[in-house]
Every structure is written in C-alpha cells, then in structure tokens.
Amino acid sequence: GTPQKYDPTFKGPIYDRGCTDIVCCVLLVVAIVGYVVVGVVAWTHGDPRKVIHPTDSRGQFCGQQGTPNEYGPAPPHRGIPWIPPGIPSPATPSVCSPIQICVSKCPDQYMTYLTAHGNPAALEYYRNFCTPESKNSRKAPLEVLKDRECPAMLIPSIPLARRCLPAIQAKKGVIMVGNKTTYDDGRGHHRNVTELLEGAKKANVVLETRQLAMKIFEDYTVSWYWIIIGLVIAMVASLIFIVLLRFLAGIMVWVMIVMVILVLGYGIFHCYMEYAKLKGEAGSDVSLVDLGFQTDLRVYLHLRQTWLAFLIILCVLELVIVLLLIFLRKRILIAIALIKEASRAVGHVMSSLLFPLCTFFLLCLCIAYWASTAVFLSTSNEAVYKVFNESACPFSGQTCKPETFNTSNVTRLCPDAQCLFAFYGGETAYHKYLIVLQFFNVFMFFWLANFVIALGQVTLAGAFASYYWAFKKPDDMPAFPLFSAFGRALRYHTGSLAFGSLVLAIVQVIRVTLEYLDHRLKAAENKFAKFLLSCLKCCFWCLEKFIKFLNRNAYIMIAIYGTNFCTSARNAFFLLMRNIIRVAVLDKVTDFLFFLGKLLIVGSVGILAFFFFTQRIKLVQDTAPPLNYYWVPILTVIVGSYLIAHGFFSVYGMCVDTLFLCFLEDLERNDGSADKPYFMSQNLRKLLKKTNKGQPDA
Fold first, then answer.
1. What is the largest CA-CA distance in the chain?
2. Helix, strand, coil: what percent of the chain each, to 5?
3. 168 phi/psi in degrees, rounded to 5
4. By CB neighbour count within 10 A (0-12 exposed, 13-18 middle, 19+ buried), where does 150 fall?
5. pLDDT, average across residues 614-626
6. Which residues make beta-bridge pairs with 164?
7. Distance from the CA of 186 to the CA of which of 48, 151, 361, 392 falls in 20 to 30 A?
8. How far apart are CA 674 and CA 500, in angstroms?
C-alpha cells in the first residue's frame, strides 16, 4: 500500500504484492490440461474430410486415395457423387432418402434405363452411374429399378463443388437442360426441366458466389500493397491523433460543447419563428389532442402547438446543459487534464501501442484451437446404416451392417429391404458424450478468450500505473514498464485473472444457451415461453455488461495493489461509486473524443481510398490498379482503419481508466504532507489547488 513516510526511492504501491487466488490458478491449469486431452481425443477420432469431401450413400468418400471409391488419376472429375434425380413416390416415403453414387464423371446425355437395356453399348455407359452391385447383376430391368441399383434416367450434368448437378441454362428466356426443355423420367412420362430448377437454385447460388469470390480475389491480388499503404496511413493518423490530444483535448471538448449550445440556440430561434409565423393561419390553433394520431407526420408541422412543444423541450435542454456546465466545469477540466496526462503516459510507454497485437495473436490461437477441436468433434461420428424398404417390414429403421446384410434374416423376411447409409453417429460412450465435449469446448473457448483479454488489460494497467506512481516522472519508472507489468501479471495474478474471466465466461455461455433456445423456439406458439426467454436474454445481457465493467476496474486495482479479485472488484466498485459524477463526466468526455478520433481517421482514410481507387485523383490516376469491384479495397481499408483506430484507442482508454483510478486513490489516501505526498502530476495539483508540502514537485 501507500508508505507511511515518503521515501524518494519509493516507486509506488504496484511493487508490493504476492500470489492471489491460487485455487483459481490451479483450476485453470487443470481445465487447460483437460482441454488439451479433449483436443487430442477429438483429433484421434475425428475426420475433417467428412466436412470437405462428399460421400456416397454408404458413407464412403468419393475419389479419396485408399478408399473403395477411388476413381481416375486426377481431380476434379474424380469420385464425384451423383444423386439420381428420380421423382420419389409419396406413397412410399421410405424411398425418399436420396441415393448418392460416386462416379468418375458426370453424365452428359439424356437416357433412361429401359431404353439403354436393349443396347449393350448404352447399357455399359449407363452402368457407370449404378451401384457397384449392379455391375454383374442378372436382374430384370424393372427389378433393378425397384431395388434402386440404377437410376430411372440420366440427365446432362456438370461438376460443381465435386458434385454432379443438372446442367441448367437459359437461352432467350427459356430454361433448358442439354438443349432440351423436357425429359423422360424413366417411367414413361415427359416432364418439364423447370421441375429440376428448384433443386438447382442453391447450386446456382454457389456458382455465382464462387465467381464473385474469384473476382474479389483478383482485386486483392492487384491492390494488396495499396491496401497496406492505406492501413499504414491509418496507423500513423491514429498515433498523431493520440499525440495531439495532449495539446488539443481541451480545445476539442470546449468547441464541441459550444457547438451543442449554439445548435440548440438556433433550434430555439427556429421554433419561435415557426410558432410566430403560424399565428392567425386557419387551422393552426387546433390542439394536438383534438387532432389525434395522424400517419402523415407533416400535418403536425402546421400546428402552433407542435412548435411550442419543440420550443419548450429545446429550452429545457439548453437550460440543463448550461447548468451542468456551471456546476461540472471543474470536473470537465479534471477529465481533460486526465486525458492530456494519458497522452503523456502513452508517450513514455510507446510499446503499449503494439501490445494489442500480442493479445490479438493469442486470441487467434484460442479461436483456431476451438474451431479445429469443434470440427474434429463433429466429424468423429461413425457411419450408421439403417434398413430401408418399400413394403411393411418389422426391421424398418433398425441399424444394420452392409457386409453381413445380404446373409441376415432381414433379406429373407423383407426381400425388398436395403441396408443404406443413414447418418454419422455412434453408440459408444465417447459418441454418447460428444455433446458434452462440444459444450466443454465452447466453455473453454470463452474462458481462455476472456483470460487473454484480462491479461492484456492488467498488463496495460500495470504499465500505466507504474507511470502514475512514479514520483519523479519518468525517472522513477522501470526500464521496461510493459514487460515488467506482464511478468507481474503472470507470476502473481494468474489466479485472479482466471477468476474474473471464469465468471464472465459462465454468463456468456448462459447467453449462448439462451440464444440457442430462442432459435429453437421460434416456431413455437407459446407466447409466455418467448416472453420469459426474452426477459432472461435482456437480464443476462445487462449482467454481462456490468461484469465486463467491474472486471476491467478490478484488473486495474489488481495491477495497482496486487489484491485478490474479489477485494479488487469491491474496492474499485465503491471507489467509483464515491466519485460517480467524476466517472460519468470522464466517461462521456473520453467517449466523445474517441468517437471524434475514429470518425476523423476512418472517414479521412476512407475518402482518400475512394478517390484513389475510383481514379479521381489526377496526380495518381494512372497508378490506381484496374479492379472488378472498386468497393473491395475501399471497404477493406475502411474496416482495417477502424480496427487499427480501435486498437490504438483501446490502449488509450485503458490508460485513461487506470490513471483515473490512480488519481482517485491518490486523493483519498494522500494529503500532500511529507508522509503522504500526492503522486499526481503538477498540472492536476494546480487544477485541484493541491500542493506537496516540503516535497519537490514531480
């Protein structure tokens, strides 16, 4: 804590500490070990090829080396799954499950099985699109179709995303497939190709998306270095803005306040002029109550009472703002002084501006581990086969094994039954608890992500606190304040960071669960359940915001005093409550400056990028690259500029919050005497009319 007697060698309370919340530290280590075990188990059982590569109806991969369905020497026409586009009968819903067949290439002509059966050459071609069992089959044509070993007809198809889809094209507004508008469905009926259009709509969307992605990729290949230049300009502009805040913060705040007062004053004048102009006009004296509700809002503008109401509201706002300025002017000056002081602190700890990159890198690791584990867990199911049949069968829907199905009692009792791939699943203990492992994966992601963010916050808070609690700034600061703060956070306060991030992670997981339930209940008609769910979502959203606010200030107190999480959270909360007006003023002033800074940086860089990439700057008109979509690099520069500005201002915001809490602690714990000198800067002491008696000024 603060020393009882001033010592010139004392460097503030941030160096007096011990390990905190050790139980939570141990719990975090155990959870991470368990998370690693879950990842190893998932990677052992999972197979991401199930997400990327298509399969046939037996769950076997198409065109993958070492699998039964390996076809041809080279992609992309190797092992393409094809779904025969037969029209299932509604009377036999069991056959509605589509049969996917791995083929070496897609069919390129119209043909039916009945017409091909009488032509050996055509039949040989047709069997390329039948199941392997039909190769040596001696069954009659109708029996083959009944057993669904071959499709009833073929239609011209094209490969898309390693899948065969109808080759639909439009010629002069007419939908055609293979230059025909009708096709034989294999049952003696001619159908219009528009019946295939609905099934291919999503395929066309995929194709159009793919073409769009290729054009966007081309734009990036020719403009990437200009995008980087734009982002560098945004970074330099952010740095310059932070430096200028030391000199211009007060001017910007007061100019904005004066502008608000002038705008409200003009509003009052305009409302009065409109009110006076309507005097004596017919119908202008009708009251709002008598007029009632009107959908055309312009009607209200012809009433004197409307402008009178606007006039009164603006006058009240103007009066409130003027009174707030009169009574809060000193607190506004303190907020401006703290912002200027934060700019000086950032200047002495320049490495802090690059520290968000470390946090971003660790967050990317958390996201990558979570995503890969989720994919491996979701693909660690095994192929499950079930009995499908057209007639009544007691074994319908039961699991089966394709290897032994033909020799089982099922085929004897149900001759038309087939053992087909149903879905990926499993009946082992591991497969039964997959949903639990997925939940644990999501929970650990939130916990570790919040821990990384907390580590970044307490590191920055420790670095800026070392600046504030240095009596002689910057001489009494450590040589590497950021690295020193990072080391203290990991060595002493891993448990406290784990505690705070655990509480936040629990609330976030509950919110995700509520969102999932809300998604599942969208089709439900229970209005009470929807109302209750909406209330819970609102409550937990507010709780998450409050916990984030509390955690942020608790981490600052941990960085300053080294106390445990609960003590730090309690002390920070009551310290802020005792200075609630100062908190509100500082929060609004900093919010305004950050908004102004982001708007200025993103707007300026975005406008510059727009004029450059649209070749409207004559000096560099020939330098701009040719683009398919000029909005691609412009949006990239705008989004990147916002992220860069947000990263810089997040560091600056943490600096302001840290110095503010240090400032409040300094006021409450010290009195400027020789035993308890103030650590605040000379400008703040002058503003508060405080002095350090018998001590040299910092």
1. 113
2. 65, 5, 30
3. -85, 135
4. buried
5. 76
6. 82, 159
7. 392
8. 37
Question: For residue 61, what is the DSSP state?
Answer: B
Phi and psi torsions of 514, nearest 5°: -65, -40
pLDDT for the residue numbered 77: 33
Residue 559: which of 471, 646, 645, 500 has the closest Cα?
Answer: 500
For 155, the token pair is 């239609």
Residues 6+ apart with CB under 8 A from 601: 234, 237, 238, 241, 641, 644, 645
CA nearest to 156, candidates 79, 207, 96, 85: 85
What is the gyration radius of the CA atoms in the chain, in angstroms?
Answer: 36
Q: Which residues contact 562 (CB under 8 A, 6 or more apart)?
A: 14, 16, 17, 18, 20, 488, 492, 493
The reported pLDDT for the residue numbered 29 is 96
The end-to-end CA distance of the chain, in Å, is 20
Which is nearest to 459 in space by CA: 661, 243, 654?
Answer: 654
> Quick one: CA dihedral 205, 210, 215, 219, positive or negative?
positive
Separation of alpha carbons 514 and 565, rounded Å: 28
The helix (run of H) or strand (run of E) holding residue 562 is: none
Query: Three-class SS of residue 133?
Result: helix
Does residue 53 contact residue 62 with C-beta atoms inside 8 Å? Answer: yes
Q: What are phi and psi of 166, to 5 degrees?
A: -50, 135
Answer for the pair 92, 390: CB distance below 8 angstroms, yes or no. yes
Residue-level pLDDT at 458: 93
Which run of H or E residues covers position 672? Answer: none
Distance CA 273, CA 270 (A): 5
Smallest Cα–Cα separation from 150: which of 174, 130, 171? Answer: 130
Contact 500/452 with Cβ under 8 angstroms? no
Q: Count of CB atoms within 10 A of residue 359's CB?
A: 19
Give per-residue burial for 562-601: e unless 16+ CB within 10 Å, then b.
bbbbeebbebbbebbeebeebbebbeebbeebbeebbeeb
The residue ranking higher by pLDDT, 589 or 232, is 232
Residue 624 and residue 613: Cα distance in Å, rounded? 6
DSSP states of 579-615:
THHHHHHHHHHHHHHHHHHHHHHHHHHHHHHHHHHTT
State percent of the chain over pLDDT 90. 19
Which residues have a Cβ under 8 Å from the Cβ of 252 and sit 6 or more positions away?
Answer: 593, 596
Tokens linked to 401: 């094994």
How far is it, in rounded angstroms, from Cα 312 to Cα 575?
A: 38
HSE-CB for 35 with a 13 A CA cutoff:
23
As given in the structure block, the two tokens for residue 102 are 């791995």
Quick one: 372 exposed, middle or buried, by C-beta within 10 A (0-12, 13-18, 19+)? Answer: middle
- pLDDT-derived band at 175 (thresholds 50, 70, 90) equals low
3-state secondary structure of 287: coil
Closest by alpha carbon to 64, among 79, 76, 51, 50? 79
Decide: 261 and 670 in contact? Cβ < 8 Å.
no
Cβ neighbours of 431 (radius 10 Å):
16
Report the interhelical angle of 481-492 vs 527-561 (nearest 10°): 120
Instruction: Please give the average per-residue pLDDT across 17-42, as a whole number.
Output: 92
pLDDT of 13: 60
How many angstroms separate the Cα of 392 from the Cα of each of 92, 286, 396, 416, 608?
10, 78, 8, 10, 72
* Cα dihedral: 502, 503, 506, 511 (round 10): -130
631-669 vs 304-348: helix axis angle to the nearest 10? 80
Which secondary-structure segment (H or E) carries 208? Answer: helix 194-277
**193, containing H or E segment:** none
pLDDT for 680: 83
Strand partners, 81: 102
* Stretch (H or E) spanning 119: none
